[in-house]
Amino acid sequence: MSLAEKIRQVEENIAAAAREVGRDPSEITLVAATKVQTSETIREAIAAGVKVCGENRVQEMTAHLADNAYEGAKLHFIGHLQTNKVKFVVGRVDLIESVGSQRLLEAIEQQAAKVGVVQDILLEVNVGGEESKSGVSVAELPALAARAAELPHVRLRGLMAIPPVAQNEGENRPFFAQMRQLFVDIKEKMDDNKSVIDCLSMGMSRDYEDAVREGATLVRVGTALFGPRPPMGQPG
Ligand SMILES: *Cc1c(COP(=O)(O)O)cnc(C)c1O
């Protein structure tokens, strides 16, 4: 299958999963996870209909930006972000999906104030409670969300999660359902003039249909579009 055909296939799967549970497919946006792809492939994906690219390495993203590779699409930062690299990301992407600590949140606020922008963000939740993963714990989420709401140069748009790697199909549905509940709770508390809580980012190549069934508005898909990647190297 060509890249264009794979994109269409994934979009059809998203739409089918949405209809299964009575959702309007237009509520869900495919985020193409473009890590390790070339600028040429990114352009090909956008020409074939990809509306949002998700990057998780600062260095690659900076090179693609210099290349104008994302022209015609929105850009989300979805990877682990070190506070010393915030300056390369704030104001350059439409949404930072992976804000998982107060330290990072405050660094984003500072940089956004400095360059005079209001940066849209999602809070990343470590929904599986895994030691190895970044993201705020479920217990600490309300306090972090409350802090985000206080900051003038940050606009909280919702939540993101990367659940544990599932061994069997369907295994992550309870985590997705839990995220959906956290999203509804935050929305009830936080929706105001400043914060429009409308993004729930969850689901990757192996489980995006389940994530859609449980309420995802953004699914981040790499392998199902671009094929397998070489093993992960150094984080960006
Ligand atoms: C790479 C990546 C994805 C996509 O993963 P696939 O399994 O290839 O679909 C999604 N989210 C994040 C944060 C990623 O880094």
Automatic annotation (TrEMBL):
<comment type="similarity">
    <text>Belongs to the pyridoxal phosphate-binding protein YggS/PROSC family.</text>
</comment>
<dbReference type="InterPro" id="IPR001608">
    <property type="entry name" value="Ala_racemase_N"/>
</dbReference>
<dbReference type="Pfam" id="PF01168">
    <property type="entry name" value="Ala_racemase_N"/>
</dbReference>
<comment type="function">
    <text>Pyridoxal 5'-phosphate (PLP)-binding protein, which is involved in PLP homeostasis.</text>
</comment>
<protein>
    <recommendedName>
        <fullName>Pyridoxal phosphate homeostasis protein</fullName>
    </recommendedName>
</protein>
<feature type="domain" description="Alanine racemase N-terminal">
    <location>
        <begin position="9"/>
        <end position="230"/>
    </location>
</feature>
<feature type="modified residue" description="N6-(pyridoxal phosphate)lysine">
    <location>
        <position position="35"/>
    </location>
</feature>
<dbReference type="InterPro" id="IPR029066">
    <property type="entry name" value="PLP-binding_barrel"/>
</dbReference>
<dbReference type="InterPro" id="IPR011078">
    <property type="entry name" value="PyrdxlP_homeostasis"/>
</dbReference>
<keyword id="KW-0663">Pyridoxal phosphate</keyword>
